[in-house]
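Weekly modeling sync, notes
Attendees: S.R. (lead), two postdocs, one rotation student

Agenda item 3: backlog of single-chain predictions. S.R. asked that every request posted to the team notebook include the full sequence so nobody has to chase files. The rotation student volunteered to paste the first one in as an example of the format we agreed on. Action items at the bottom.

Example entry:
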Amino acid sequence: MHSILMIDDQPEQLASHTQFLKEKGCSVTVASSVQAAFDKLHQSSYDLILLDVKMPKVSGLDCCRALRNVSSAPVLFLSNYSEDNDQVRGFSAGGYDYISKECSLELFWARLRRCFQPKDQANTLRYYPPMTLDLERQKVTLGQKTVLLTPTEFSLLILLSSRPGKIWTINEIYREIWGAEGPVNITMVQMHLSRMRRKLEEAFPQHEFVVTVWGKGYQFVLMDEADRK
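Predicted structure, as returned to the notebook:
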């Protein structure tokens, strides 16, 4: 059973979503204010947080930034707005995904399922000296440093590193990570990749693990043994 925290000041408007999730076997806890949400987070852990963008007193974007300090659960923004600029602000605040409240319940569920991380994995560690990826804990270690990535950034790194040397186009990355149909949100993909790459380079400037292949896409590059000496 997946546990979900829904933060919305008008939860009655999402009654059909709540009932739908319960029918899918999820446990749903509702918080109608930011303070109530933090109280619940101090009492329990959740697999996913659904957050209304337009919360009173404290905006959903500011709330998401604060949530990142107390929970590693993916945050999925719920909004009546779907402009690219709104979505970019949401992702910049640390959100994992952004979805309209008006979408169908089946699409809503499909987007949520991508946020749930598998509880058991056959291979919980990947080792690309000096990088270690802990899939179970969603932890990246470079040398002696731990790199703090958002869930989306970690998913991007897992995808690119799954086939070192392969050039991933933006279209491929968008379909694999966001699983969305329709036009590809190039700005969103580039923003997440840029932030992830910057964090890696700051932690380990000796090697660039994710490189741009101009005109084609992005590539995960292993570090040569000679370079590690």
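Discussion: group reviewed the output briefly. The mean pLDDT is 83.
Action items: rotation student to repeat for the remaining queue; S.R. to check formatting next week.
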